[in-house]
Amino acid sequence: MSGSAESLPRRLARWLLGAFLTTAGVTPLGPFQVQFRGQVPSWFPVDADLVVLVSGVVEIVLGLALLLLASRRRVVGVVVALFFVAIFPGNLWQYLDGVSAFGLDDDRARLTRLFFQPLLVGWALWIAEVFTRTSRRERSRSAAG
After folding, report:
1. pLDDT by residue (tens digit) across 95-131?
2. What predicted TM-score, i.e. pTM, was given to this entire model?
3. What helix, strand, coil percent values describe the chain, rounded to 5?
4. In Å, what is the CA distance from 64 to each residue of 37, 76, 103, 119?
């Protein structure tokens, strides 16, 4: 499917998510790094500063990949979805422990964010065209080359 034409709504969604991820990745690399440490679970066995820096770089790379690698949007979209799944335990921990960080200063805000995580996963998978059905004829045609 990555070789197929990308619809305008998917292209816009890919660009928007790419821009969001790139911006989100740059934010913890600057003066807000200290606030992002609060989003790393205390039980996580890696230094919180390192986690913040690495996750910021990963977000930038994934955002740029969404923006620049349209021909690989299926793979990139699935990797982005997996990234959102991977960071969910940290978001859940932040809610359960009531840790305030970067604008998430009450339980309501932290809980609201938890409901957006599955939407982000779905968004990335939609961009990747994971939910698109193909006919048997189309699959045969692409398998034949």
Report:
1. 887 777 777 777 888 888 888 899 999 999 999 988 7
2. 0.79
3. 75, 0, 25
4. 24, 10, 25, 20
